[in-house]
Fold:
Amino acid sequence: MIELRHLSKTFESKKKNEDVLALNDVSLHVKKGEIFGVIGYSGAGKSTLVRCVNYLERPTSGEVIIDGAELGEMSTEQLRQARQNIGMIFQGFNLLTTANVYDNIAIPLKLTGVSSSEIKKRVDKYLNIVGLADKKKVFPNQLSGGQKQRVAIARALSHEPEVLLSDEATSALDPETTDAILDLLLKINREFGITILLITHEMHVIQKICDQVAVMENGQVIEQGKVIDIYTQPKNKTTEKFVSSIFPSDIPDTIIDDLEKQGPIINLTFVGHSADQPALSMLSKQFDIQSNILSGNIVQLKDQPFGKLTAHIQGDKVETDKALAYLQEQGVKVSEVKRRG
Amino acid sequence: MVKLMNEILAFIDRWSGLIWESTIETFQMVSISLIISIIIGLPLGVLLVLSRPGKSLGNKYLSGFLNVIINIIRSVPFIILLFTLLPFTRFIVGTSMGVRGVIVPLVVFTAPYIARLMESALLEVDKGVIEAYEAMGIRTRDIIWHVMVREAKPSIILGITIAVIGLIGATAMAGLVGAGGLGDVAYRFGHLRYEPVVMYATIVILIIIIQVIQTLGNQIADRAKKD
Structure:
């Protein structure tokens, strides 16, 4: 549905030789009906990336292909038409302050040539979906942040686009409101099959609704894949940092030094059904070892639970090796924790 | 007491006709030149914003040209502009005298001022909203009217209020080309013929007019703000 091929974007600086390379050869493919998340720290280029997808920012080189059509080859008029098929929501909501909720949705529809009877139908329909049917006559300044974002989502949906872009749409909201908005995005993805490309700096957002994720750093995509794969097998330092922001399980080096003398410290990663097996207690029964849990956590990814446990295994080398082999047979991913220093 | 009353009545009897007439003249001059100035100034303000480098019509030559012209006109005090423009005025409206003759210099004076006020009002509009409308595939001309001008309306109204008050001040000099108006009465009768009461009366009327206009402007702007 969305295909980005070798996108690069350079921002020219007034001073010579200080041009900023915001995007460096980025390629992504977002399939129809998917929720694709791009995560990165500020300055990683993710905002530039999402703004290139609807050509709010014109890429310096590379191609943006939406639904088979390349935006770069379009005339102004064609681009305008193409954009009506790409909804976008923003961190700052970007509603008209001088228009009430109804008009905020109706005015853009009118300006894109939708008939007035159809406008009324659509405004009612999408305000119902976002749960603000009773706020039609209210002005944005009287709404909370979450409600404003709902209006913005209704505005985007009212054009019945196939693609929705989200530029940090939950970053200005509190955790509870963030969850409610994410649930709403998930709902519209499932009910209308809208493909969603979102960018965020919160792993929580990726975890809760995304199917695929790309990690960005310095204008490049450094890792991408299914969310579950990135969680279980992060290959890159930055990715690891993002994953551990969900599982804060750093063990002090002094403790590692101490414990290692009596047996290995291991990270156990459980995915899906293996997450609900009593793996450690089985281990103690079947092998001559003792285990001690150092930290543990389980989270719900979009489609499956995902757990991580850090434990210390005490026993002699033969037994602990056997125990670890057994765990791996059970579908649990095992890795040994080493000191970082 | 009775004597004072009689004096006031005598004053009204003698001067009210003239003052009323000149108030009407002032209103005529102000309203006609205001309307024409808005018709010229608002689009000019939009053009000033859009021609800024980086904006949708970004063109540094056009933007530079407009800025220089506007700055040149705005450097000239109205009284000098009035005389400098005499031939131009005669060419445009056929006369350089009376209310008709003063409209041209008033517009030349006010339109660039309004353009500047519109420019600063439009620049206050949240860029995010404009961007959101671009992202929805809405035409630039529709964005100008339905987003920029709409969202800037409270500031535009306050700007026009400021312009009206400046315009009333400028009309005081209109008497020099025989256009009449309150300023002219105050100058001719109050100053030249030494009738201080006439001068004070016109000053009081001007104060009331300015107060009413500013209060009205504030109220309309507040209502447009919607929050």
